[in-house]
Amino acid sequence: MPVIEVRAVSHRYGDHAGARLVLDDVSVRVEEHRLGVVGANGSGKSTFARLVNGLVVPSSGRVTVDGLDTAKEGRAVRRKVGFCFTDPDSQIVMPTVAEDVGFGLRRRRLPKAEVAARVQAALASYGLDGHADHPAHLLSGGQKQLLALASVLVTEPDVLVMDEPTTLLDLRNATRVSRVVADLPQQVLLVTHHLDLLDGFDRVLVFDGGRVVCDDEPAAAVRFYRSLMS
Amino acid sequence: MSTPLGLYLPGSSPVHRAPVGLKIAVMVLAGLGSVLLHRPVQVAVGLVLVGLGYAVARVSWRLAVAQVRPLLWLLGATAVFHVVVSGWQRAVVVVGVIAMLVLLAALVTLTTRTTDMVDAIVRWLRPLHRVGVDAERVGLMLTLGIRCVPVVVGLAEEVRDAQRARGLTASPRAFAVPLIVRSLRHADALADALVARGVED
């Protein structure tokens, strides 16, 4: 399992005097298979998730994934760490479903036949095989999130970071996505407001005011979070 | 399955299987050759040929008509202008040529995957790297441009719905400002997604 290390990380968006501190001296070492992250809006949990694949480079401190520094070796880190965003519409790059799944593979200049085979396998795995040539923007919300997931996982990352992937979905689609995530062999870091998705996780971090205020097994962390929010 | 304007319609017809280069070459030659059309009968022949292309590609006539529907107001205005200024025959030629070229371009996009088209363009542009043209980047730009059309249309519909829900009458500023802000936000999110998917700055 890859080791994610966040050491003494603080972060502000912008460098002007009034820039708010969104992460305040956060240190975490993650070796578990399933890590949940919860917190109120603006607590710093999404910024924390974005640190892991180098989308956000910290103002101070250091983040490494399997020893690779996200600030210096961003490209290598992003090959290891896939990222799934809240709004699938923002991460669908290509006009049709199959083309979008193949996008990351084509960027790696894999042979056409291999791209086609891996795309086909990914579409079948996520229940999208009947939609290969379907315009991506006409899929339902749940299908779009599955497409976003397939497009990330087809590149076989070691770690999958998901930033509130079920927030825009109805219960049926949220359940569908969470089942897919539950079966993944990858290490998963899941940021969510849906606390029931954390069942079976190894560890949960609770963020508040840019700091980790609780780091525990899911039941205890969720209890802490509920009391914090009340 | 509904196929929106100008998007790939899966198929295995000879038109679908024809090389991308040939399809684009036909389109360019038709554009150049259209300046030689001066009589309505010549334009009619051109339209029939394009219609044959649609038949061979097995694209329904409804979808074919849908390709020119957004241009009807433009075609109408052009026709009126030419009827008044230069007579009905010239109006038929001009409107017919525009419709023919739009239909032909739509036939190419309906029967060609975006990736195949972009791959071909990237291949043709690659020799230009000596003069500083980054073919891969041009290809990505074209792809994102095509992808963003339905996104911006969707955002525009949402803004219009939000205006209606709040009882606002049509106001260009009240429509344009939120649309531009949301489009820029989408562009930011898309940039993050591209980086996350391995496209470095």
Q: What labels describe this entry?
A:
heterodimer; A: 230 residues; alpha/beta; six-stranded mixed β-sheet; four-stranded antiparallel β-sheet; 10 strands; 33% helix; globular; B: 201 residues; mainly alpha; 2 domains; 9 helices
Structure described in brief:
Chain A is 33% helix and 26% strand. Chain A is of the alpha/beta class and 230 residues long. In chain A, the strands form 2 sheets. Chain A has a 6-stranded mixed sheet, with helices on both faces.
Topology pattern of chain B, helix = H, strand = E: HHHHHHHHH
Shape of chain A: globular
The tally of beta strands of chain B, per DSSP, is 0
Structural class of chain A: alpha/beta
Number of continuous helical runs of chain B: 9
The helix/strand series of chain A, from N terminus to C terminus, equals: EEEHEEHEHHHEHEEEH
Number of domains of chain B: 2
Give the strand content of chain B: under 5%
Overall geometric form of chain B: globular
Strand elements of chain A, count? 10
General description of the model:
The complex is a heterodimer of chains A (230) and B (201). With 230 residues, chain A is an alpha/beta fold. Chain A has helices spanning 45-52, 74-80, 97-107, 112-125, 141-153, 171-182, 218-229; strands at 4-12, 21-30, 34-39, 60-65, 68-69, 81-84, 159-163, 187-191, 203-208, 211-216. In chain A, α6 links the parallel β7 (159-163) and β8. In chain A, α3 (97-107) crosses α4 (112-125), α3 (97-107) packs parallel to α5 (141-153) and α5 runs parallel beside α6. Chain B has 2 domains: 1-112, no CATH class; 130-201, no CATH class. Chain B is built from 9 helices and no strands.
